[in-house]
Design brief:
Blueprint (H helix, E strand, L loop, with lengths): L15 H10 L6 H17 L1 H14 L17 H13 L6 H15 L3 H9 L10 H13 L1 H4 L3 H11 L6 H14 L2 H17 L7 H14 L5 H21 L4 H16 L9 H12 L8 H20 L1 H11 L5 H17 L1 H4 L3 H7 L1 H4 L4 H16 L8 H12 L20 H18 L4 H4 L16 H18 L17 H13 L8 H10 L1 H4 L4 H16 L9 H10 L2 H13 L8 H16 L4 H14 L5 H15 L3 H13 L18 H19 L2 H19 L8 H18 L4 H8 L3 H4 L4 H20 L12 H8 L8 H21 L9 H11 L6 H10 L11 H10 L6 H18 L7 H12 L5 H17 L1 H9 L7 H9 L4 H17 L3 E7 L3 E6 L1 H15 L4 H6 L1 H14 L23 H13 L3 H9 L2 H6 L4 H15 L4 H8 L8 H14 L4 H4 L3 H11 L5 H17 L8 H12 L8 H16 L5 H18 L2 H10 L8 H15 L4 H9 L7 H12 L1
Antiparallel strand pairs: 1-2
């Protein structure tokens, strides 16, 4: 077919005239599809031969006047303009009646031609637009359309049009004529020439037409009247205003569509104001009332006309403000007090518009507006508040907020940045579509505050440092994040510019919080970073910026420490509720007076956190750390007194906070702390107490104060320096406790101290000798078991041992009770058997020994019962003195505690051991891993319901494990779980979001360590991959239409395979499954072409790099080849950029071809199995997969290895089947592959000659072939095949004749076609010379322009290896 598109249109079987006539005859076909195809064909012919086709169309329409198909007109404007114009004009006015479809089509032709040939069009139109004669409707409509589409071209004709039109307006009686005249007048009226005539037209439109009952006509007339107002003489307009304005205002009630009315009113008001109308004042009341009704109407933002109407009404207010500023402003401000919510909202919209659009006029009204805006500030409606925020934003940009009273507006914004979430009762949902939720209003205020900071430069000195005030009051806590962000921006800018007012004089700004309170507030925020809308990071950033204002000495430390804390927070780490940062800061500040003042003010600030007890508890600890660094004893004692007296002892969290703070203080001020605790114990508050035995008896305040005091002594004992506390135990701690609670034990100081503390705990435990009571005591000790300080762990472990021994000795089991916390206790204690401190190790063995006997008691055994397996722990205890790691781990392995643990408590033990993986002592974290794996091996088969949760917790813990050996053990844990619960493990890991984080990858890599298991997993994943839908269609938006999205699960499984293959131990599994893996990944690769990843794929908030749509499959394929030791395949693919080509949809086939080539050259023996796996996929419904596989097979046929490995028949058959594939790309690749047989296995050409030639012939006949790719491949393949066919091969002769007969019609010569059909038969002989003689004669006759092409082509055959071919070529040239 390419011959038809040569530079000179070639002769066809039918002439263009005959074709055009035939198409015109078919134009009235009943089938719309046929009519559309006819239209396209006429258009194509018209582009090639415009004059001839247009002439025939014109003649046809003249001869067949009844034909009515206007669809073709719009495409025939190429030549003979005069005739077309005349014909269109006649068709448009042939019928006096209005025939919309036909006459509109003719009018459209005239308008289209008029864009280029305006003079010719107007000559024709004006001939039918004569003075005194009412023109045809579509003549006027055409003038209107021309005025809109060719504005400049119509200018010379406007005088003539108006001169003819204005006198005939009174002749129009029908609404449609009035409407069309109004439309033209709106577009073409000219003031300079027709200002007097305009009034005459206005008179007709206003007095007659505007009163029409037809809504469409009224609106069009109103639009024209509005435009006329600027063109009328001033005296005439002034005369008409008292009637015109009320008439326009009355239209609002008569029409549902208001935009045109508002636009017309705006034009009339603009004209009136511009000429200085005096009459306008008499209309001001009705104008304001009506405009107020319009501006208060709801705006439907899905309906553009209602938005436009709202804007036009606002413009009306702006115009009136120029003449009546005082009257208008007072009207608007009075409406702010109206009880109707809608009126208040509308008035605020007007006020905002006036502030933005009438700056100079509103300048003198600023103070009045500031005073009046206070009323809506107190409004309870969120919808009104939203408008208030918009007004405040406008005021900020025009200098209002700098004035007196502007701070109230800033306060309003901040108050609403602190709004809580909207509360809905269960099942309740907002019914009002305009409802403004607290969240929406809060977000709006956040953005407004940010805009104040970043875009309103004049506010910088207003906001700085004023915003600091709002950081510390509790009611603004929810606004902390946006406040800190704005202050950080302001402070950073001022600090970088070295502006003097960056340094704050807190004595001058008395309303601001002190530097000490600012530091406290921001530090507490940073320690609970994810509360109050994530205020932690902004608070720390601000603290860093304002460091010179807090204390100059803190600047260097904070610049180093705070960015590290921020990075930690970005990783969503746990809360930083540890006062170590404060301790470092106080050391750097090194200012005792400042530190003392910090302690005083922080203590005074405690009550601010009465509703946030965890934050308050942390602040107690901060005060304790601060007191550590104070040398002023008086300050220390006073603040300790304040902490003890002001604490709310009824709350356990606060009690603990007080105790920890006092314990921290004791590390530097032991004497002062003990003295103050002694005074507190002797105070009047305790006189009602009756001793220790009343403890926990009731909830009275006295008993809670006792609990606080006990905790304080306990934390003092834990935190005080060891060399100091020993001398004070007997004289202070035990004496104070014994006076109030205990009997004094006259023993050695150190032993007495801890015996006393243990006795205290034993007495508490005695009140509730149950598993719950034991847990309530143990929870106060357990955090110290993993302390980084050895002496703290030793004390905690010894205390635990004594508590357990007491519990066992006093246990009386009357009923069968479950020792439900056995698992949690063992999980905490067992890893300590490998603690670096030998005393801790021994105590841990003692604890476990006692625990197991407690369990035996609950199982019903007597107190004197001895269990052999438990007794073995006594022997093992002796080995605890040996610090050798091998002995420690051997001990852990021998502690088969799982034999004594009931199944129902296994869960707790497992999760405690997992928590122990991040123990501060590496020996203990390793022990946790060893115990965990031992437990999983022995009992893991019964943990089906826990597998997913265990994997999730392991995933979290992996992120915090730094010990490499522990990581290896975790990998082993995952492997153990997989051997027992394979499907659950796979389902859990595969569900992790893409892209897999590094810890998810480690978990998948771990599964590749066991070759047998890896093979099983890979088979399961491939089975899923092969049956999954590779992508899904989703309609993303109206504009972008349907988008093909990558199936997330498919990508997750592909990534999983990739990570498993990264494990070197997976090589055996990879090699055994190589054909299946290769074929699955290749098919996945094909499925990924042109596919998009969903937007929410990286919704987890992390900053990991997202995988591209093809990277997963391509990377997995490359890793597969490398793991299978096919480096010779990978190397050329790397060098040729094949991987990137496979990802690119435009080069995908090239990339796959390179892959097949490399495999054929360097991995031939692996191909048969691969081909066997891929063959069934050729029947998949997804053409992207068939394209990839066909491209791969096509290139394989280009190599002799196919024949060597006996794959020819299989590939040949598959390619023949793909010849009829519905996808043209697949058919093209199949034809290419068949042609490649001649290159890869030329000796097979004669064997498959018939099939190959038939396929090439079929390819050359292909009709559904965009770009002629199949035809070109067929020609290329045919040339390859013919080179290797046996010249004596009868099939060759038959095939050549057949191919020439089939191709003859494509040549485009009727003579040649007839000759080929008559003479080229398989069963007839042929006289070659005569045949060539006739053929050349017809070529010269029909294609003289192609002779050079044929000469060049035939000369190439002079080099053929066949003498007959060379002779035939010479004969052809000679003829």
């Amino acid at each position: 077919m390419s011959i038809l598109y040569s530079l000179t249109p070639p002769p066809c079987l039918l002439s263009p005239s005959e074709v055009t006539l035939a198409l015109l005859d078919s134009a009235n076909d009943k089938d719309p599809v046929v009519r559309e195809q006819v239209r396209k064909s006429i258009l194509t012919l018209g582009k090639l031969q415009p004059n001839k086709v247009l002439s025939m169309c014109q003649d046809y329409l003249v001869k067949h006047p009844k034909v009515r198909h206007h669809h073709y007109y719009c495409h025939l404007l190429y030549a003979k303009i005069k005739s077309i114009i005349s014909l269109a004009s006649d068709e448009m006015t042939r019928s006096k009646d209005v025939v919309p479809d036909w006459q509109q089509a003719a009018s459209n032709i005239l308008v289209a031609v008029g864009n280029k040939y305006i003079n010719d069009i107007m000559e024709e139109i004006l001939s039918k637009f004569q003075p005194g004669i009412l023109p045809h409707f579509f003549v006027v409509q055409t003038l209107s359309s021309l005025s809109e589409s060719n504005v400049y071209g119509m200018v010379p004709f406007l005088n003539a049009i108006l001169g003819t039109m204005l006198p005939m307006l009174g002749m129009a009686k029908q609404d449609n004529m009035k409407w069309v005249f109004s439309s033209v007048l709106y577009l073409i009226i000219i003031k300079d020439t027709f200002s007097s005539e305009i009034y005459a037209a206005y008179d007709i439109l206003y007095c007659s037409w505007l009163q029409s009952r037809e809504s469409k006509l009224r609106l069009t007339v109103a639009e024209a009247v509005g435009s006329m107002s600027h063109l009328m003489a001033h005296d005439k307009l002034e005369e008409q205003l008292p009637k015109l304005i009320p008439t326009i205002l009355s239209l609002y009630k008569k029409n549902t569509e208001h935009y045109v009315i508002s636009k017309s009113l705006c034009q009339v008001l603009d004209a009136s104001v511009n000429m200085g109308s005096r009459v306008l004042e008499t209309q001001i009341d009705s104008l304001l009332t009506t405009l107020n009704q319009q501006v208060c109407a709801p705006v439907d933002y899905s309906n553009p006309l209602t938005v436009k109407n709202h804007n036009e009404v606002l413009r009306c207010f702006s115009i009136l403000a120029n003449t009546f500023p005082d009257r208008l402003v007072m009207f608007v401000l009075q409406k702010l007090e109206n009880s109707n919510e809608r009126i208040r909202m509308g008035s605020l919209s007007v006020l905002r518009h006036l502030i933005n659009s009438s700056t100079s006029i509103m300048e003198s009204k600023k103070l009045l507006i500031l005073a009046s805006i206070r009323q809506p500030l107190a409004d309870h409606s969120n919808k009104v508040k939203k408008r208030v925020v918009q007004v405040i934003s406008a005021m900020a940009h025009h200098g209002y907020l700098e004035l007196e009273g502007g701070d109230l507006l800033v306060k309003f914004i901040i108050q609403h940045c602190a709004l809580p979430d909207t509360y809905y009762r269960p099942g309740q949902r907002p019914s009002d579509p305009e409802e403004v939720t607290n969240e929406a209003l809060r977000s709006m205020c956040d953005n407004t505050l940010h805009l104040f900071t970043t875009t309103v430069g004049r506010l910088t000195d207003v906001l700085w440092p004023m915003l600091l005030y709002y950081l510390t009051p509790g009611q603004y806590s929810n606004a902390t994040a946006p406040l800190c962000k704005s202050l950080t921006l302001l402070g950073t800018k001022k600090r970088a510019s070295q502006e003097p007012n960056f340094n704050i004089d807190f004595n001058e700004h008395v309303n601001l919080p002190s530097p000490h309170i600012l530091m406290v507030r921001l530090l507490v925020n940073g320690s609970f970073p994810f509360r109050s809308r994530g205020h932690g990071a902004p608070s720390l950033s601000l603290l860093n910026v304002i460091s010179p204002n807090i204390h100059p000495n803190a600047e260097t430390l904070w610049e180093k420490e705070i960015p590290a804390l921020l990075s930690y927070l970005e990783g969503k780490g746990p809360q930083l509720n540890d006062p170590r940062f404060l301790a470092k800061s106080l050391v750097a500040i090194a200012d005792d007076k400042w530190s003392c003042q910090l302690a005083v003010e922080a203590t005074r600030y405690l009550s601010t956190y009465n509703q946030s007890l965890e934050e308050k508890s942390f602040l107690y600890r901060c005060i304790g750390v601060t007191l550590q660094h104070c040398s002023n004893k008086e300050v220390v004692q006073k603040q300790l007194q304040e902490m003890l007296i002001s604490a709310r002892h009824n709350d356990a969290i606060e009690r603990a906070g007080v105790a920890m703070g006092i314990g921290l203080c004791a590390s530097s001020h032991l004497d002062a702390t003990l003295a103050k605790l002694d005074d507190f114990g002797k105070s009047d508050a305790f006189k009602k107490a009756s001793g220790i035995f009343s403890l926990l008896k009731n909830d009275s305040d006295v008993e809670k104060m006792k609990s606080t005091l006990i905790l304080c002594y306990g934390y003092v004992a834990l935190r005080a320096p060891e060399d100091q506390i020993l001398s004070r135990i007997d004289s202070d701690i035990l004496r104070s406790i014994s006076n109030f609670y205990l009997l004094l034990f006259p023993q050695a100081l150190y032993k007495d101290t801890f015996n006393a503390l243990q006795e205290l705990l034993r007495n508490i435990l005695a009140r509730d000798l149950s598993p719950n009571g034991l847990q309530s005591v143990f929870k106060h000790i357990e955090e110290w078991l993993s302390s980084g300080q050895g002496h703290e762990r030793e004390r905690a472990m010894n205390t635990t041992a004594h508590i357990l021994e007491f519990y066992f000795n006093n246990l009386h089991v009357k009923n069968m009770v479950t020792f439900h916390n056995l698992g949690s206790l063992l999980g905490r204690l067992a890893p300590r058997c490998t603690d670096p401190n030998p005393l801790v190790r021994r105590a841990a063995i003692d604890c476990i020994y006692t625990l197991l006997y407690i369990q035996l008691r609950y199982e019903g055994f007597s107190l004197d019962y001895k269990d052999d397996s438990v007794e073995r722990l006594i022997t093992l205890r002796e080995s605890m003195d040996n610090p050798d790691h091998s002995v420690l781990y051997k001990t852990c392995s021998e502690l088969i505690i799982s034999k004594r643990l009931p199944q129902q408590q296994l869960n707790t033990l497992i999760f405690m051991l997992i928590e122990g993986l991040v123990d501060s002592q590496s020996n203990c974290s390793r022990a946790s891993s060893v115990l965990l794996n031992t437990l999983l091996k022995n009992r893991g088969a019964g943990l089906q319901d826990l597998v997913s949760e265990m994997l999730e917790v392991l995933h979290i813990r992996l992120q915090m494990i730094s010990e490499e050996q522990v990581k290896v053990s975790v990998a082993q844990s995952i492997l153990i779980l997989a051997t027992q619960h394979l499907q659950t493990v796979i389902n859990t890991l595969i569900s992790y979001p893409l892209p897999f984080d590094s810890w998810s990858c480690e978990m998948w890599i771990a599964l590749g360590a066991d070759s047998k298991l890896a093979s099983q997993i890979m088979e399961m994943l491939m089975e899923k991959l092969n049956i999954m839908v590779p992508y899904v269609d989703k309609k993303e938006s109206m504009m972008r239409g349907a988008i093909i999205f990558y199936a997330i699960l498919l990508c997750q499984m592909t990534c999983a395979l990739k990570e498993m293959m990264l494990n070197g131990q997976s090589q055996e599994a990879v090699v055994s499954l190589f054909p299946q893996l290769f074929s699955s990944l290749l098919v996945r690769l094909g499925s990924s072409v042109g596919v998009t990843l969903p937007k929410d794929i990286n919704s987890s908030g992390t900053h990991r790099k997202s995988p591209t749509k093809l990277s997963a499959a391509v990377e997995a394929l490359r890793i597969l080849l490398a793991r299978a030791q096919l480096d010779h395949v990978v190397k050329p693919l790397d060098q040729e950029g094949a991987w990137d080509k496979m990802k690119d949809p435009q080069q995908h086939i090239t990339g796959v071809t390179l892959l097949a080539r490399a495999m054929a050259k360097h991995a031939g023996p692996r191909l048969p199995a691969i081909v066997e796996c891929l063959c069934p996929c050729l029947n998949n419904i997804y053409e992207c997969q068939r394209v990839t596989i066909t491209a791969f097979f096509s290139e394989l046929l280009n190599h002799h290895v196919v024949t060597e490995l006996m794959m020819m028949d299989v590939l040949m058959n598959n390619m023949m089947e793909r010849i009829s594939d519905p996808c043209c790309t697949v058919r093209m690749l199949a034809v290419r592959g068949l042609g490649n047989i001649a290159v890869g296995s030329p000796e097979k050409v004669n064997k498959y000659a018939k099939e190959l030639l038939a396929a090439m012939s079929s390819g050359m006949e292909e009709k559904d072939d965009p770009g002629k790719r199949i035809t070109l491949e067929a020609m290329s393949g045919l040339s390859k095949v013919l080179l290797y066919l046996d010249k004596k091969n009868v099939q060759l002769l038959v095939a050549c004749k057949y191919a020439m007969r089939v191709c003859a019609p494509v040549v485009g010569s009727e003579l040649i076609t007839t000759m080929f059909q008559n003479h080229l038969h398989e069963d007839k002989s042929l006289h070659y010379g005569e045949f060539i003689n006739d053929l050349t004669k017809y070529i010269i006759q029909d294609f003289p322009g192609m002779l050079n092409f044929y000469h060049i082509t035939v000369i190439q055959f002079f080099k053929s290896s066949w003498a007959e071919v060379r002779a035939g070529a010479a004969m052809f040239i000679g003829r």
